[in-house]
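Section: Multi-chain targets

For targets with more than one molecule, the full set of components is provided together so that the structure can be written out for the assembly as a whole rather than chain by chain. Components appear in the order listed by the source. The example entry contains two components.
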Amino acid sequence: MKAGDAMLKRFKKNPSSNFPPFQSFPEDSPYQFLSGKILTQTELPLPVEELQLLEEQSLVMKLPSLTNTRSTWQCHRCGTDKPYFFARFPHAGCRKKCTYCRNCIMMGRVMECEPLYWFSPLAVWKKHHSPCQWEGELTNAQSNAAEHIVLAIEKREELLVWAVCGAGKTEMLFPGLTYALRQGMRVCLATPRTDVVRELFPRLTSSFPEVEIQALYGDSEEKSGSAQLLMATTHQLYRYSQAFDVMIIDEIDAFPFHNDDSLKWAAKRAAKDHASQIYLTATPRKKEKRRIRQKQLPTVFIPSRFHGYPLPVPTLKLVTTLRSRLSKGTLPKSILQRIFNQQTGKRQLLIFASTIQYAENIKGILSSRLLVSSVHAEDPARADKILAFRNRELDVLVTTTILERGVTFPSVDVFVIDAGHQVFDEAALVQIAGRAGRSHKDPDGEVIFFHSGKTNAMFEAQEAIHQMNIKAKNQ
Amino acid sequence: MRCVICFESVLPEVNWTNFLLVQKEVKLCTTCFEKFDVITEPGCPLCGRADSSGVCYDCERWEGSSYQGVLTKNVSVFSYNDFARELVARWKYRGDFTLIEAFAEAAQTKYKNYFQMMEADLVAIPLSKERLLERGFNQSDALITLLGVSPHRFLKRRGSEKQSKKGRSERLLGENPFILVKPTERPVVLVDDIYTTGMTVRHLALLLREAGCPEVYSFTLFR
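Its structure, encoded as tokens over all components, is:
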């Protein structure tokens, strides 16, 4: 334990020069699946004797799990040091008042009396000769971005890819991924949203059929997280340290990553010190925009969609009775009429509501005449409902902001009910509008923001989309 | 102050009362507070569930079985809604011990109203050693401590099976997993987190009653 303490101090002070004296996992080691992981005692998948053996070979180190600084604690799994995340309880294991971390409690309890186990990040990964079997072709804008990405990985640099919704970000990554896998690098593609992982995973596996790829999220079937190419929600990165040569974070501006320092800390630590960091976003937040302006963050910008058609610009519709009707559990007649009119066309309809309650109310109102369902973050049947909508088994899907990004439906119109609500900030509205006109066959779509009073967010979103279209035209 | 459940900061409204007097500590934000469903009027007089008028079907079955009269009455604080289910998962299975503070005020009030006059001994549901080490604490011990009393240990667990993973019939058919260590002649209140089928408390109650305990009640957080 003491050695661990001292090591961690050195490690924290100067992370690059004092990398602990780990050995590399020998090739074909049955324990390579643990490489780069940080686990609690209860998460260890090994009997004690095997663990000891690994310890003697410098393949695993014990680290203190919580350290006490002058005024507060720090959790070494999630990095948090906010005092209100720490509590003490009478622990039956150590028979003392034991401090534990409440920030990452949903991933299992980290306690003062139990160390963390860090498995050597050094391992030999396979060099794939030609991993990518994708046969599509990149557009000019896409291949320009792809070249930048390859270069950033080669030089182990940071890069922000600012690409509008529907620019085809995933495909732009393929040359970069191919390069990394040829070099025998370990790659993580992380994102804050589970739905994004679910959507991207099958696309990656079909494009890289011979590469071992795993998807890791809260209730994923795969739990080991041992693959060379790992897809994960950003929360899963709490369980890695210095593991990846390339860290790609998709949708960096999404909740909860964008305002959670602990997740950002974890994403940094999960990557090697000299790893290439690639961020993807359609709607960078102020902090990133400032770094772009100050030329501190290398950026590549893709203002046009892969099919070359402009982004649908949202129209604003004022409905003064909107809020009073919503609070009574009904919808204004004009909106109902719009919805039924829309349904006479060929497209499906995606409706965004401000709260779970309103989403369910709207579903209830429409269900007498249409095939409709509603989803929200805690909905256990979320994945099934999204699939049913994609398979056109539903006419209308009513959702909270949970579906604002990462999901693609080929041919939808998008209505936002009460777009003035605070949950719909500029980024959310741009993303929501970006759900329409995604496919080559139907590159257009109607986007309507129903509101009872214009907000800056609505106006800025409209303006941002408009600007993108102008830039795309001039390209 | 931060809400003990969602960590949002709680800003107590300043008025003359709390300006002049010592303030009660606020543990919950209003959003989380409102998600609790406090049982104000028990529908079933025996098991305390809210959604029943008169003795419920489950209790009728108990009273017609060999467990007739074994448990005098159950009192519960909250209905076991989705919110409660999530909290219990985080509290008991993930081990977020401090969440118990969220239940404190309501549980203490309820306990006072029903049991304080009774001079009964409070007994926790015993956990097996393995389970205790896995969780790090015994949830019913923790609840009794929360009520400001120290728990009595009249009973012990034999096996180590998880009740929550079993269906009703499985639970009812199972053997009694507890053994009596020390008989008592005073009334007893069994304290647990959830009353689901009522099997656990009746297993314990039966052992106590057979050894001369005059009355056994149960007090649970959720029903």
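Chain A touches chain B at residues 42, 84-85, 87, 89-93, 98, 100, 102, 105-106, 108-109, 111 (CB under 8 Å).
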